[in-house]
């Protein structure tokens, strides 16, 4: 049964069941509906119960609301919910509020239904998704069917409901046929408002959507299954009341959630899904919740731009894969963090299980922000002009959401706040420095010196801020334990992690030049741009100074902490082989453009 026929049969049966039900709207009678949803109803029930209206949404919606106040059950069709904006005063200020304002004496059993969201080539004024608008209004109930069973059951339930119900349909789904059960064909079949439905069971991630996006989530789940990722697909069906229990139960099962909607990202339905996941399941989350949404633009008319402005199946797949990869990276980081730092905090390794979720969550958010900013740095303009001297904006929306979570739990201490501020500073400096280096990819043997556009002090500042994530995790560990930070230990760890990051930069030097078009900060790259062929000598001098400072700070620590650090050094040397503790400088690259051309963007 097609969704069109499901909606038509639902109205037919409800009109036959209850003489107070009638339909009104533009072209619903003689033309049998703009999308033929009301086909045949005029011939069966006559013009008194299937009424064509003028093109005046405010007027006929007001008539419908008045009829509902008087005891009838109108079904008001909007040719598109974009036109409901003309009637929003009647919907929000009259239909939604009179039950409350009359202390329950006045009910408004009315249905507002029609096409919502994008269709195909109908542009900005006919393509908007109004789910978040109406779902935010007290007094309204809002549903969004996906398949034919949803369409029949939700519409019949909406007609029988004593409150105003907004039924958000999708034009493209009208012609799609879905299997339908015998039970759903029964005249008394309804889908309870406020109940979601699991369309596909899974164990690794929950994909939450409504309307057309449910189908996209099902297709994405099939593709993810081929890559070994089991996705559970949850069809919301009802946006208000929303099924918090179903969302929470699924997220507790899979430990990850991605919300998918056509609407705009800010203040959308996805924001509510994320809020539910964090409020109800924070300790069960293995990764920060993600949203896949429409673009923050009015809908374009051109087909290619329209496609770019809407969520696509590949967006869902890439978001899930990125989430899984980010979590895997975060877990590896936390495993190393636990082995290295728990003993320094005097914690047994088994305490890892007390703090696992919050540490992985925070590191996962930091990884994502780091990846976003590296991509932005890699895609920045490499052309000349004064714009290269400006500090490009950083992408930290995820950090702000995380900070709200930490603040709510009393974990956003001054130490954590300071390290997150260092992270923002690092990303800002990374993007600026990478942009400047891309402007001068060919380095003379003596280096650019002052012509680089940045100083050695600025490069060292960025290098010092780079390891903020480990320092943030240490500060967070103090907050979780409720103890005062150890200033001497934190200062040692600052220098120690700085040396580790410099070592990583030496190992990754060539990759950081090639990957992402040179969008990754690397301290040796900075030294090469400043000093040319002499960069290794200058950097080696800096490393020597830091090693001396590290040794001095180590000797200040208590003997047990000193012993742990030295054991870790020996273990690292054993894992990496003889000579692992010696610094190895790669050959400097003076022409980054030629190097990328020779070895490819992936460094292969």
Automatic annotation (TrEMBL):
<dbReference type="InterPro" id="IPR009014">
    <property type="entry name" value="Transketo_C/PFOR_II"/>
</dbReference>
<dbReference type="GO" id="GO:0004739">
    <property type="term" value="F:pyruvate dehydrogenase (acetyl-transferring) activity"/>
</dbReference>
<keyword id="KW-0560">Oxidoreductase</keyword>
<dbReference type="InterPro" id="IPR033248">
    <property type="entry name" value="Transketolase_C"/>
</dbReference>
<dbReference type="InterPro" id="IPR029061">
    <property type="entry name" value="THDP-binding"/>
</dbReference>
<protein>
    <recommendedName>
        <fullName>pyruvate dehydrogenase (acetyl-transferring)</fullName>
        <ecNumber>1.2.4.1</ecNumber>
    </recommendedName>
</protein>
<feature type="region of interest" description="Disordered">
    <location>
        <begin position="373"/>
        <end position="396"/>
    </location>
</feature>
<dbReference type="GO" id="GO:0046872">
    <property type="term" value="F:metal ion binding"/>
</dbReference>
<keyword id="KW-0786">Thiamine pyrophosphate</keyword>
<keyword id="KW-0479">Metal-binding</keyword>
<keyword id="KW-0670">Pyruvate</keyword>
<dbReference type="Pfam" id="PF02780">
    <property type="entry name" value="Transketolase_C"/>
</dbReference>
<keyword id="KW-0496">Mitochondrion</keyword>
<feature type="domain" description="Transketolase-like pyrimidine-binding">
    <location>
        <begin position="1"/>
        <end position="176"/>
    </location>
</feature>
<dbReference type="GO" id="GO:0005739">
    <property type="term" value="C:mitochondrion"/>
</dbReference>
<dbReference type="Pfam" id="PF02779">
    <property type="entry name" value="Transket_pyr"/>
</dbReference>
<keyword id="KW-0630">Potassium</keyword>
<dbReference type="GO" id="GO:0006086">
    <property type="term" value="P:pyruvate decarboxylation to acetyl-CoA"/>
</dbReference>
<dbReference type="InterPro" id="IPR005475">
    <property type="entry name" value="Transketolase-like_Pyr-bd"/>
</dbReference>
<dbReference type="InterPro" id="IPR027110">
    <property type="entry name" value="PDHB_mito-type"/>
</dbReference>
<keyword id="KW-0809">Transit peptide</keyword>
């Amino acid at each position: 049964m097609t969704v069109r026929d499901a909606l038509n049969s639902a109205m037919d049966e409800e009109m036959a069941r209850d003489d107070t039900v009638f339909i009104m709207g533009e072209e619903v009678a003689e033309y049998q509906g703009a999308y033929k949803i009301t086909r045949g109803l005029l011939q069966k029930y006559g013009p008194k119960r299937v009424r064509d209206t003028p093109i005046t949404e405010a007027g006929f919606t007001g008539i419908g609301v008045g009829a509902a106040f008087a005891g009838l059950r109108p079904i008001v069709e909007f040719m598109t919910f974009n036109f409901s904006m003309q009637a929003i005063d009647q919907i929000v200020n009259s239909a939604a509020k009179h039950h409350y304002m009359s202390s329950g004496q006045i009910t408004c059993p009315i249905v507002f239904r029609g096409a919502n969201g994008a269709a195909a080539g109908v542009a900005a004024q006919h393509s908007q998704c109004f789910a978040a608008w109406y779902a935010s209004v007290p007094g309204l109930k809002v549903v969004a069917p996906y398949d034919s069973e949803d369409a029949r059951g939700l519409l019949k339930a909406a007609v029988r409901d004593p409150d105003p119900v907004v039924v958000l349909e999708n034009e493209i789904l009208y012609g799609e046929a879905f299997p339908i059960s015998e039970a759903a064909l029964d005249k008394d079949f309804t889908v309870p408002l406020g109940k979601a439905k699991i369309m596909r069971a899974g164990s690794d991630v929950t994909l939450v959507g409504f309307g057309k996006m449910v189908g996209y989530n099902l297709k994405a789940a099939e593709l993810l299954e081929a890559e070994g990722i089991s996705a559970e697909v949850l069809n919301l069906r009802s946006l208000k009341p929303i099924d918090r229990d179903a969302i929470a139960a699924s997220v507790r099962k899979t430990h990850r959630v991605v919300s998918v909607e056509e609407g705009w990202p800010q203040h959308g339905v996805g924001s509510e899904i994320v809020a539910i996941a964090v409020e109800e399941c924070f300790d069960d989350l293995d990764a920060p919740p993600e949203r896949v949404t429409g673009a923050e633009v009015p809908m374009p008319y051109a087909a290619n731009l329209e496609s770019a402005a809407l969520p696509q199946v590949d967006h869902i797949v890439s978001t899930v894969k990125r989430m899984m990869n980010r979590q895997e990276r975060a877990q590896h980081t936390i495993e190393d963090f636990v082995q290295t730092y728990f003993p320094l905090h005097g914690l047994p390794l088994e305490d890892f299980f007390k703090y696992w979720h919050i540490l992985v969550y925070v590191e996962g958010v930091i990884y994502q922000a780091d990846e976003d900013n590296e991509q932005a740095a890699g895609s920045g303009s490499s052309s000349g002009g004064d714009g290269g001297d400006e500090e490009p904006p950083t992408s930290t929306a995820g950090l702000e959401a995380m900070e709200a979570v930490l603040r709510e739990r009393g974990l956003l201490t001054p130490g954590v706040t300071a390290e997150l501020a260092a992270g923002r500073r690092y990303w800002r400096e990374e993007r600026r420095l990478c942009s400047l280096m891309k402007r001068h990819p060919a380095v003379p043997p003596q280096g650019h010196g002052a012509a680089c556009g940045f100083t050695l002090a600025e490069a060292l500042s960025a290098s010092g801020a780079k390891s903020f994530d480990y320092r943030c995790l240490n500060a967070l560990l103090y907050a979780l334990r409720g103890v005062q930070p150890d200033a001497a230990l934190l200062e040692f760890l600052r220098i120690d992690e700085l040396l580790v990051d410099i070592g990583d930069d030496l190992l990754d030097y060539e990759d950081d030049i090639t990957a992402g078009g040179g969008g990754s900060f690397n301290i040796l790259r900075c030294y090469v741009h400043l000093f040319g062929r002499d960069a290794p000598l200058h950097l080696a001098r800096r490393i020597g100074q830091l090693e001396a400072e590290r040794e001095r700070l180590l000797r200040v620590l208590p003997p047990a902490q000193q012993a742990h650090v030295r054991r870790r050094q020996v273990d690292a040397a054993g894992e990496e082989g003889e000579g692992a503790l010696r610094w190895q400088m790669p050959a400097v690259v003076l022409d980054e453009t030629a190097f990328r051309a020779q070895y490819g963007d992936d460094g292969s």
